[in-house]
Amino acid sequence: MTPSDTVLSQPQSLAQGSYQSSLRGGDLVSLSDLSPDAFFEILDIAADIKQRVKQGEQVHALAGKSLAMLFEKPSLRTRSTFDVGMFQLGGHAVLLDQQFVGIGKRESLRDVASNLERWFDGIMARTFAHSTVEMLAQHAHVPVINGLTDLVHPCQLLADYLTLRETFSDLSGLHVVFVGDGNNVVHSHIYAALLAGTTLTVACPEGYEPHADIVAAARDKGATINISHDPRDAVQGADVLYTDVWTSMGQEAETAARLEAFAGYTVTADWLNDLAPTGVFMHDLPAHYGEECTEDVLYSPRSVVFDQAENRLHAQKGLLVALLG
Ligand code: CP
Ligand code: NVA
């Protein structure tokens, strides 16, 4: 091996400032904050970094930068992927558990925000009340990212649409059918359908529809959002069958009532035969087997669930670079 071979064999490194973004310095509180161009700008940066890293390149676009990760609720994927994502981008993430921070108990939300912005280049927060993330964004002069609230889960849908772009050549005309509770994930699905021009059908029991004002606002802007109470009919010919837990974090007291209300909404393997020939199964996870789906569905050849989980990492790296780079 000659000295020049040694140099050539070093991984290439893409440094800070390599990506232009119209979103720099902004927040991601909800996908409703984004234009279609901004949504696809994040996905484009994510796809580019993903490809470079898979080819052995280093992308240290956030060298020396730090992210605070504030959690009021549990997490596997969000916590892991923001932490690993910051590391892979040359930066650093610090976990701040609400048990220790005590927002609104030990210290006011405004004071927490005013401290964090002095030490960190960005804040990611998973909270119960959506207003907590909104107020963090209002008070902190660094980008604030919503890592899930009771109302929305924007980072999940970034990963999901990165997955859909990898799975289907064309998003327009795609029919996504969500079966289950009209929850935070569904609200972000509605905004994503509007941004990407996909058709969304939400099949849910009566009384568990997504917020009517979110549906109406999306429809007013041109989105095609259908509500159904017949899940088996709704999934006929679907390109995507998506489900999520029936009882979200914070709703545990309603578990028994929800188990009863969602009878007939368990996605089993035979449901997959009703999809389009290229149709896929998606779930944001964690899964509660025997409730919203069975284990064999999650591990079936139709499932892209673990691609979604992997893409949490890549999509959020795109988002972090767009906002903090
Ligand atoms: N899908 C998702 O957000 O997973 P976690 O709750 O584990 O972060
Ligand atoms: N709807 C679920 C999503 C978990 C990632 C919840 O809020 O618990």
Structural notes for this entry:
With 325 residues, this protein is α/β, with parallel strands linked by helices. The protein contains 13 helices and eleven strands. The strands form three sheets. The chain has a five-stranded parallel β-sheet, with helices on one face. A four-stranded parallel β-sheet has the order 4-3-5-6, sandwiched between helices. Strands 1-2 form a two-stranded parallel ribbon. Helix 5 packs across helix 6. The chain is globular.
Helix and strand pattern: HEHEEHEHHEHEHEHEHEHEHEHH
What order do the strands of the largest sheet run in, or round the barrel if closed?
Answer: 9-8-7-10-11
Q: Approximately how much beta-strand content do the residues carry? A: 5-15%
List the uncertain runs.
1-10
What is the topological layout?
Blueprint: H1 3-9, E1 13-14, H2 36-54, E2 58-59, E3 66-71, H3 77-88, E4 92-97, H4 98-101, H5 109-119, E5 122-126, H6 130-139, E6 144-146, H7 154-167, E7 175-179, H8 184-196, E8 199-203, H9 212-220, E9 224-228, H10 231-234, E10 240-243, H11 255-261, E11 280-283, H12 295-298, H13 305-324
Parallel strand pairs: 1-2, 3-4, 3-5, 5-6, 7-8, 7-10, 8-9, 10-11
The site of norvaline (NVA) has 9 residues, from α8.
Please give a quick description of this structure.
With 325 residues, the protein is α/β, with parallel strands linked by helices. The chain has 13 helices and 11 strands. It has a 5-stranded parallel β-sheet, with helices on one face.
